[in-house]
Amino acid sequence: MGALKRRIWGVLLALGGVVAAGTLGYMILEGWPVLDSMYMTVITIGSVGYAEVHALSANGRIFTMGLIVAGLGIMGYGLSTVTAFLVEGELTDALRKRRMERKIAGLKDHVILVGGGETGKHIVEELSKTATPFVLIERDAARVASLERLGSILYMLGDATDSAVLEQARIGEARGLITTIPSDKDNLFVILCARELNPTLRIISRLTDEQSRSKFIRAGADVVVSENLIGGLRMASEMLRPHVVSFLDAMLRETGSVVRVEEIQIPAESPWVGQTLAETQIRERVGVIIFGLREAASGRYLFNPNPDARLSAGDVLIGCADRNQLGTLRRMSSGG
Predict the structure, then answer these.
(1) pTM greater than the 0.70 cutoff
(2) Burial of residue 137, with CB atoms counted within 10 A of its CB: 0-12 exposed, 13-18 middle, 19 or more buried
(3) Rg for the chain (alpha carbons), in Å?
(4) CA distances from residue 321 to 130, 279, 294, 327 in whole angstroms, order as listed
(5) CATH fold of the domain at 258-334
(6) What is the CATH number of domain 2-102?
(7) For each successive 10 residues of the chain (336 residues), what is the average pLDDT?
(8) What is the domain class of 107-232 according to CATH?
(9) Domain residue spans in the chain?
(10) Long-range contacts of the stretch 51-58 (C-beta < 8 A, 24+)
């Protein structure tokens, strides 16, 4: 596309050069004024067929024939260049769309993000940083174009309240869905459609009106996030524990090694089942400190669990880890 644009600029410059040369030629050979010379040049290059402005001398006729040949050559080249620009642009877009459709068709264990507004933008950034496979569903092409500046993303232009669109996004193979549409009514409808298509899907929804929370839960949402509630807690935390908030912000803004508070669920076949936290040697072998443990049996959370805490299948370990450490922990927990 860049080469074609340069060719178009070359055609425009060449055309301007021919017009300037033709105007100057008539002024010198025929002694015509500037306006008459330019008019004669333009109608000659354009092959309009109007009558000559003034009677031409022999030299003027020879010059006009050369001007016709040069003009037709540039006009023909320009037409072919513009045609190639349009055809190649459409072809590039079609091929790009086809490649994206193939990638979406191959997605598995991914996240579906509905809505690419201000809230969706931050989610796109976080999913991209953590290398989480996802596909965005957005109705506004301008929003998608804006989000593409953050990096290459998979997206679908469509309405997520349409079951066919969710199916194209591979909802049956997805691990979760996040819906961030500003309208509670639309979010509710997306939840109903998504839950019907995938009963095991983890669904997280944005909430505007706190009174609608119970409706969202009944519709099938696993987690409902009120932006007003989160914003209020954040402001209170900035006042009460500013350094903790600054630390977490710094962790999220880190562009090198992406460190996050991560979780590892212990599978039934894990060698850690029956071992104590100390016996797993997570800190010694991986360098990760486990500061949280969710017990599968009771559902309660243990903060700063005792090293003698014995692990069971389904327990969830929580600690800060980068991508490499997280991969190592997953291999260790599965016995790999």
Answers:
(1) no
(2) buried
(3) 33
(4) 11, 19, 17, 9
(5) Alpha-Beta Plaits (3.30.70)
(6) 1.10.287.70
(7) 68 86 88 88 78 82 86 81 66 76 93 94 91 94 89 91 94 96 94 96 94 94 92 91 88 78 93 94 93 94 94 95 90 86
(8) alpha beta
(9) 2-102, 107-232, 258-334
(10) 54/30, 56/30, 57/29, 57/30
